[in-house]
Amino acid sequence: MARFQRFARLNRVDIRGELRNMMGDSTEFRGQQESVIRAMIRGEGPILQVARTGGGKKGAAIVIVPLTALREDMHGRCEKNKTDSYVWQSGGSHPVTTVIFVTPESAVTKGFRDFVNRLQSRDVLDRVVVDECHVLLDASADFRPKTLELGAMIREWGVQRVFLTATLPPADEAECFRIACILSERVHKFRMRTTRKNIAYSVKPVSAAAAQQEQAEDAEGCRIV
To answer: Where does the Helicase ATP-binding domain start and stop, copy by copy (predicted)?
Structure first.
């Protein structure tokens, strides 16, 4: 009941006004940011947002972040904006904050499951956000195997699930949804172009002789002294 009351209060929030209060009077939502936020406020889910990099309550949100540097950056932004947040550590106290950052590996541990149970017993857990969700496709028995357990784990939490990425081609969606344990027909998708015009690459053919010369030069330059 408490979660539904929080969603009801969120529906009355002026999200454009709150954005400007936080980021400045001239700030506007970019791309589909506003649509995604409104879907979250309505309690819809699962949600998938695919947007290029930089494209942009008192309940708790768990944010699963696979990269340490990205997690620290997000935590720093929360502190700068005076948003109550916490980076999960396996030892020590575990405060209940508005945002809890955790790695995929830690999210499937018994210690974190117990923490989630604590949040749910207080009826304060509203949603879980999986950032860089394309890493689900990279996981295997030999590389970040615990990540493969993530989809089934967060499904058991029974809260709104939001998946964010800038790197998920339409052809890979079905496999990503399978690993994430979500039904494709129930996903609310928000996709925008992820191409970046300021980045380009080119492929140039190289003759066999030139390739051999380059390899020889590289070999000469790599020596142990």
So the answer is: 27-186
Q: Which residues contact 177 (CB under 8 A, 6 or more apart)?
A: 183, 184, 187
**Residue 140: partners with Cβ closer than 8 Å, 6 or more residues away:** 148
CA distance 155 to 99: 19
The rounded distance, in Å, linking the Cα atoms of 164 and 84 is 21
H helical segments located in the chain: 2-10, 15-23, 33-41, 68-80, 104-107, 110-121, 135-138, 150-157, 173-180, 208-221
| Distance (Å) of CA 184 to CA 46, 178, 206 | 9, 8, 44
pLDDT tens readout for residues 61-86: 999 999 989 999 999 999 988 889 99
Model-wide pTM > 0.85: no
Long-range contact set of residues 93-98: C-beta below 8 Å, sequence gap at least 24: 94/118, 96/60, 96/122, 96/124, 97/60, 98/57, 98/58, 98/59, 98/60, 98/61
DSSP assignments along 135-188, one per residue: HHHH--SSSSGGGGGHHHHHHHHTSEEEEEES---GGGHHHHHHHHT--GGG-E
| Six-digit token string for 128 | 């879980």
Closest alpha carbon to 104 in 131, 85, 78, 127: 131
Does 57 have pLDDT greater than 50? no
Are 168 and 201 a contacting pair, CB within 8 Å? no
